[in-house]
């Protein structure tokens, strides 16, 4: 039998490795920005065209590379960060794996220009699909300029799997922000299709907390500053610096939760649970607080080499870190009067009103006891009897047939009688209710084959969704003009997302007058929506668009209709009268798809008479 196992060609091996390292344009952005940070740059510029499909360019003023290093950087398993296996447990940089540049070069056209400070001429290398086309000396500035063009040009199948430009751009923005958060001392600039999205100045202070606050506000928007509660703790196994959002600003969607360990962005569900546990009782169930936490742990207690993207890590002492994070956040929320706390050492004298500062001290009340009191003596018995008689006369006055008290009592009696008759069917001519509400969550109704139980929230979402979808696609949802323009403060990310669907928002009734960096001004909003609801609806809409990654105009309209239906639907716990219950049942079964809510949840279940009889015969 002939031998069948053989070594893969170098270019094929690099393309396979690229499948792990380069999943989308954002992966390239992450690798190149991290290399620029590791090179000691103080200014980094990211230029992107067509969501990274046409061009990704990173310019930095870091240490640069020599001619030999520049060539070796594109070889597999080549890195300056580690020398032995033990170095994997003592990492202080990001780009240590030695496959990023080789993998990127295998699936794109790459040009690198780099120069060190003590060299007169720099180096320019051109690589197409992993093959070096040229390696020459050029005149260039200190640092590095790397261009990645036509990503996945030689792997059409991978290129076809990329999402639309708006979706890929959001992934690039996420990658840019995660790197920029970790380096507040570096100036970052991000330009997409000749539009400057971010221009983040470097921090000017020696206070790490102040620097991080400045960078967070620069990325997330000015309105974020007032929402932040500082977090600070230093122990032998963990140092925490960062901020959490105030409970009042929690959201129903994730998106502003950031963990950084040793200046590396990570995802860790166990530590995320520690943060949520610290907010227990302060935010509604299903809401998520914002947090930006920068952790420092001994490198030997951290393993970052368990996942190809290095975003998942393993700690040696997760339980201890959980307890420290939870208690630190709880303490900070209490310290800044965000959560209620008890101070047993507080001087009660400090509670004296300011108006009493010049008055004499208040004397404690005294108790006087009549030592000669004898309830059996005649004079005491007569006095007690007169008091009881006076009290009895006061109660009898309530039932006299005069004064406003009579009208009050009679009105209460009539109301109670009406309610009783309705409940027990004693009132003549009253129709028996065909529906009833169960625990302010379900609406029950009888049908020929048995009974039906309807989830009022899911059912109302389905009703509103089909109503809004029809109006948006055919005629547009009606709007109400505002007397004064409404300014809605959002994060910079949310504003950017909503800008992409501006036309669809106007079809839905949101007329945008002005768009700022972290604020939207509206002069009209949809009917049946109050001004207080607008911000929550727009926040949820931005989150839905980000999570559901729509690809077409219709899917964006669909997402808007879903968000409006979810925000304005009847919530669990709302009490409905009989007419509202019947209207809900009738409107649900008039829908085109009454079985499921827009999110796929069942709207109702049926229980047949056979099932009921079987339950009673058990």
Mean pLDDT over all positions: 79
Q: What's the end-to-end separation, in Å?
A: 68 Å
CATH H level, superfamily name of the largest domain: Histidine kinase-like ATPase, C-terminal domain
Beta-strand percent range: 15-25%
By oligomeric state, this entry counts as: single chain
What summary fits the major beta sheet? 8 strands, mixed
Which descriptor suits the 3D outline? globular
CATH third-level topology of the largest domain: Heat Shock Protein 90
**What share of the residues lie within helices?**
25-40%
Question: CATH top level of the largest domain?
Answer: Alpha Beta
Give the strand tally: 22
| CATH architectural name of the largest domain | 2-Layer Sandwich
Strand order, sheet with most strands: 5-4-3-6-2-1-7-8
Enumerate how many helices there are, as a single number.
18
Alpha-beta content class: alpha+beta
Computed Rg: 34 Å
Poorly predicted parts: 403-433
Total domains, how many? 4
Provide the fold topology.
Elements: H1 10-21, H2 25-38, E1 43-49, E2 55-60, H3 67-72, H4 100-106, E3 109-115, E4 122-128, E5 131-138, E6 143-149, H5 156-160, H6 165-182, E7 187-192, E8 195-200, H7 208-220, E9 228-234, E10 239-245, E11 257-261, E12 264-266, H8 269-278, E13 291-296, E14 302-303, E15 314-315, H9 318-335, H10 378-397, H11 403-424, E16 435-438, E17 442-447, E18 450-455, H12 456-474, E19 479-489, H13 492-500, H14 502-507, E20 511-515, E21 519-526, H15 531-548, H16 553-568, H17 578-588, E22 604-608, H18 609-616
Parallel strand pairs: 1-7, 11-13
Antiparallel strand pairs: 1-2, 2-6, 3-4, 3-6, 4-5, 7-8, 9-10, 10-13, 11-12, 14-15, 16-17, 17-18, 18-22, 19-21, 20-21
């Amino acid at each position: 039998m002939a031998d069948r196992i053989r070594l893969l060609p170098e270019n094929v091996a690099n393309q396979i490795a690229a499948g792990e390292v380069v999943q989308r344009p954002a992966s390239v952005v992450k690798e190149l920005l991290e290399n620029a940070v590791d090179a000691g740059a103080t200014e980094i510029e990211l230029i992107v065209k067509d969501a990274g499909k046409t061009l990704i360019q990173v310019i930095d003023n870091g240490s640069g590379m020599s001619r030999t290093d520049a060539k070796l950087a594109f070889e597999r398993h080549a890195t300056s960060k580690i020398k032995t296996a033990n170095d994997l447990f003592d990492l202080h940089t990001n780009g240590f794996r030695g496959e990023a540049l080789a993998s990127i070069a295998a699936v794109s056209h790459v040009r690198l220009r780099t120069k060190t400070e003590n060299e007169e001429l720099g180096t320019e290398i051109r690589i197409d699909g992993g093959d070096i086309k040229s390696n020459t000396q050029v005149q260039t500035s200190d640092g590095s300029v790397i261009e990645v063009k036509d990503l996945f040009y030689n792997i059409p199948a991978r290129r076809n799997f990329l999402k639309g430009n708006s979706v890929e751009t959001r992934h690039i923005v996420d990658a840019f922000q995660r790197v920029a958060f970790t380096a507040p001392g570096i100036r970052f600039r991000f330009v997409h299709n000749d539009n400057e999205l971010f221009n983040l100045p470097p921090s000017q202070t020696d206070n790490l907390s102040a620097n991080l606050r400045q960078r967070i506000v620069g990325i997330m928007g000015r309105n974020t500053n007032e929402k932040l509660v500082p977090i600070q703790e230093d122990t032998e196994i963990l140092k925490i610096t960062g901020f959490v959002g105030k409970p009042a600003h929690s959201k129903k969607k994730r998106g502003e939760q950031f963990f950084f360990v040793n200046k590396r962005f990570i995802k860790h569900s166990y530590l995320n649970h520690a943060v949520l546990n610290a907010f227990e009782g302060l935010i509604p169930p299903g809401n998520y607080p914002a947090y930006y936490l920068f952790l420092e742990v001994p490198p030997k207690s951290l393993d970052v080499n368990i996942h190809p993207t290095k975003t998942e890590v393993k700690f040696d002492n997760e339980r201890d870190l959980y307890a420290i994070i939870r208690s630190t956040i709880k303490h900070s929320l209490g310290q800044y009067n965000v959560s209620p706390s008890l101070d047993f050492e507080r001087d009660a004298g400090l509670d004296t009103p300011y108006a009493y500062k010049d008055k004499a001290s208040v004397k404690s009340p005294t108790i006087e006891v009549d030592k000669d009191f004898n309830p059996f003596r005649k004079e005491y018995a007569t006095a007690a009897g007169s008091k009881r008689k006076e009290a009895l006369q006061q109660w009898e006055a309530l039932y006299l047939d005069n004064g406003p008290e009579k009208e009050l009592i009679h009105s209460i009696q009539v109301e109670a009688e009406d309610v009783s008759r309705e409940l027990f069917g004693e009132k003549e001519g009253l129709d028996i209710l065909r529906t009833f509400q169960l625990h302010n969550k379900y609406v029950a109704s009888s049908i020929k084959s048995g009974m039906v139980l309807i989830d009022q929230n899911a059912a109302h979402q389905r009703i509103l969704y089909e109503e809004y979808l029809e109006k948006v696609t055919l005629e547009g949802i009606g709007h109400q003009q505002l007397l004064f323009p409404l300014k809605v403060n959002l994060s910079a990310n949310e504003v950017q997302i909503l800008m992409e669907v501006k036309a669809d928002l106007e079809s839905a009734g949101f007329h945008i007058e002005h768009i700022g960096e972290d604020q939207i001004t509206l002069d009209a909003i949809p009917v049946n929506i109050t001004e207080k609801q607008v911000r929550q609806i727009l926040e949820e809409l931005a989150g839905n668009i980000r999570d559901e990654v729509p690809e077409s105009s219709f899917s964006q309209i669909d997402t808007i209709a879903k968000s409006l239906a979810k925000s304005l639907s009847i919530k669990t716990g709302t009490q409905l009268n009989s007419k509202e219950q019947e209207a809900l049942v009738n409107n649900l079964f008039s829908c085109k798809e009454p079985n499921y809510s827009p999110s796929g949840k069942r709207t109702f279940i049926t229980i047949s008479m056979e099932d009921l009889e079987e339950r009673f015969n058990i």
